[in-house]
Amino acid sequence: MPWENGYRNSFYDKFKIDLGDPNRFKTWELVAEIYLTLWTTTTRGFIPRFNMPPVVFAKLYALVA
After folding, report:
1. pLDDT (tens digit, 9 = 90+) per residue, 17-28?
2. Which of 8, 10, 26, 52 has CB 3.0 to 4.6 Å from 56, enough for a Cys bridge?
């Protein structure tokens, strides 16, 4: 959605900073580093509008749904 564009831009900006220079990796090392960065962000990250990490939100949602 257009109103979420700020969230996406913020995510990609922080993702690029966390990942660093992609040219320092070989192909499979880059794939592994992208996976690790995304996994860390989605499991230990924080969703400001829900005021909780994604894992906690998913567990609460599973209880309600």
Report:
1. 877 888 888 888
2. 52
